[in-house]
Specification:
about 5% strand; alpha/beta; 5 strands; 4 domains; 5-stranded parallel beta sheet; ExeA_AAA_ATPase_DNA-bind; P-loop_NTPase; Rossmann fold
Length: about 425
């Protein structure tokens, strides 16, 4: 640093940047008047060592550079982020993995700095437990699918996807049970088909009305009633010029996490921006075209995340219809009255009415067509209680029981055993 004593008294309170200092010293050098006294004074007002000032001058003479040499920004690949997620966010484990892989490896401190920088910019690090659970669920679904291929070859394996409906009640009211096939994003037992119930038609009408006004709609109801399936069926075919984007709610959602979730769901090109302003500008640009933005499991969103979604909807350059879906989503919206006031349709998905149980479940899966209507009513009253998810689970268990046990008949004794598998003990 600069020397104390007289120099300190003369330069007290003076501070100057590197470009200004180097430019002045070069002028003195060109005039042949540069002395070591000038360099010492420059070091004092620049807050650096005298040798540093001489290096600055050398860089300016040989390279024409008066600023610090730019350093390459360290970026982590998606593969590295995947390793970090598997390690539960342990940066040291990622550092060991990179060393074992070979090649140039940054220091541990640099890795910590890069991870902290990207997380603060909105990069979401998946929870290790969630990743393991998702992997196990995927393996289970694949195993069930493989079993179904053996169980029902005459049914042609997986259900075929038929043409999805147009929005609006006039487009769905004439469809009979079982006329629709599978819908992307909805897990079904092998051979099952989605059925257009009265609730599905009501959701389609509500979403269609919201799209007509580019408003917001809230689809709510108890778990397992088919809210997500109803919304997916309603949006299976949208009017020309519209697009549909499903935004997954991240684990322990934050505003930064929701911003990243929307960015990824829109499939925007390039890496996620490192500032919220750039990310918001990119998202707003993509939402300038007519689009339905669906947020499932919206009940998990805190008020600040809902405010972020409202800001997207309120942005003057966006053209979106916001669909908030989930069990308890209406209570989540109650925490933000300014967004709740913008909802043009509140659509509850009720339990399956007793009068339509027989037509719905026989259209849902051919397995139930061999069961008499009174028995179907008994099953619904004893176990399913009008919950479509329970009917789906019961169908899968019944399929496996018929597959794995020879000469099995569908009677009340078998059904009572299966009831215990799909409902927790009271």
């Amino acid at each position: 640093m600069g020397e104390p004593g007289a120099w300190g008294e003369i330069t007290a309170g003076l501070k100057v940047s590197r470009p200004v200092l180097v430019a002045r010293l070069l002028e003195l050098d060109a005039a042949g008047a540069l002395t070591t006294a000038h360099v010492r004074a420059g070091a004092q007002v620049g807050g650096v060592n005298v040798r540093t000032v001489w290096r600055w001058l050398e860089a300016a003479r040989t390279e024409g550079r008066v600023e610090r040499r730019p350093r390459a920004r360290l970026e982590l690949s998606d593969l590295a982020w995947g390793v970090l997620a598997q390690a539960g966010g342990n940066v040291a484990a990622l550092h060991r993995h990179m060393k074992e892989a070979g090649g140039e490896v940054p220091s541990l401190a640099s890795l910590h700095r890069v991870v902290r920088r990207d997380v603060e910019a909105g990069r979401v690090l998946p929870d290790r437990v969630v990743l393991r659970r998702e992997r196990e669920e995927q393996q289970t679904r694949q195993a069930v699918a493989d079993l179904a291929l053996v169980a029902g070859p005459r049914e042609g394996g997986a259900a075929k996807t038929s043409t999805p409906p147009r929005l609006g009640p006039e487009a769905t009211s004439g469809l009979s049970a079982g006329e629709s096939g599978a819908v992307a994003g909805v897990a079904l037992p092998a051979g099952a088909k989605l059925v257009r119930t009265s609730s599905v038609r009501a959701v389609a009408e509500a979403v269609g009305q919201a799209m007509a006004t580019q408003g917001a709609v809230c689809v709510f109801g108890d778990p397992g009633r088919g809210k997500t399936a109803a919304v997916r069926m309603a949006l299976g075919e949208v009017p020309p010029g519209w697009k549909v984007t499903w935004v997954p709610v991240p684990v322990r959602p934050s505003v930064a996490g929701m911003r990243r979730a929307v960015f990824d769901a829109l499939g925007l090109p390039g890496r996620f921006p490192h500032t919220s302003a750039l990310a918001d500008a990119a998202v707003a640009g993509a939402l300038a075209e007519a689009r339905v933005l669906v947020v499932d499991e919206a009940q998990r969103l805190p008020a600040r995340c809902l405010e972020y979604l409202q800001s997207l909807w309120d942005h003057p350059g966006t053209r979106i219809t916001l669909v908030l879906c989930g069990a308890g989503s209406e209570r989540a919206l109650a925490r933000l009255p300014q967004l709740a006031s913008r909802v043009v349709a509140w659509q509850e998905v009720p339990r399956l009415a007793g009068a339509e149980v027989t037509s719905v479940v026989t259209g849902f899966h051919p397995l139930w067509r061999t069961v008499p209507a009174p028995e179907l009513t008994w099953i619904d009253q004893s176990c399913a209680h009008g919950t479509l998810r329970t009917w789906a689970a019961l169908t899968a268990h019944l399929q496996n029981a018929l597959l794995t046990t020879a000469d099995t008949s569908v009677d009340r004794a078998l059904l009572r055993r299966l009831f215990k598998r799909v409902a927790p003990p009271l």
